[in-house]
Amino acid sequence: MMINHPFNESYPIRTAKLGTLYIISASQAAAVQIGDRGSTNAKLFALAVQRRADHKTSGDVFFESYRIFDRPLPVLSDPEYENGDMIQIERIHCSPYITVGRIKIIATGSSASIQIGNSMRYTAESRIKHIRQYPRPRPVPPVN
Q: Which residues lie closer than 8 Å to 107 by C-beta, 6 or more apart?
C-alpha cells in the first residue's frame, strides 16, 4: 500500500510505504487510519471501579465526584521560545519514502491511535481514576 501526500513547503511531506498491517484487536475508542490526518484531538476520561459487591446494587459512580476530571491541563513552557529566540530544525531526508515491511499489533485500545501516513498536529489527553471498593478486614481480638 502506498500513501501519497500533497506537497506543502512548510511541512516536509514524505510518502509512507507499508507492506503488511496486521491488527488482532482494536477496541475502546482506538483509531486505525491509513492515510493523512490534518489534526487529532483525542480525549479519554474513564472511571475504573473494582468492587466486591455487584455494580448494579452498589450504587453509581459519577465523574463530577472526582476533581481529576475538572483540573486544568498543566502549562508547558519553553523559555527560549517565549523570549523570542529562534528555534530552527533542519531535516535531511535521504529518501522521499518512509518504508516499513510489516507491522503486527496484538491489541490496542483506550483511545490509542495507529496511523500510517502524516499528521500535522496531534493532541491527546487521558484521565483515569482508579477506584477500589473492598470492605476492610475486621480486627481479630488478641489471644490471651
A: 24, 25, 26, 27
Residue 137 lies in a domain: no
Asked if residue 142 is part of any domain, the answer here is: no
pTM score over 0.90: no
Any idea which residue has 510489516 for its cell? 102
* Tens-binned pLDDT, residue by residue, of the chain (144 aa): 544 444 445 555 778 899 999 999 988 778 888 888 888 888 888 888 888 777 677 777 788 888 888 999 888 888 888 888 877 777 777 888 888 999 999 998 877 888 888 888 888 888 888 888 787 788 888 887
Domain assignment present for residue 99? The answer is: yes
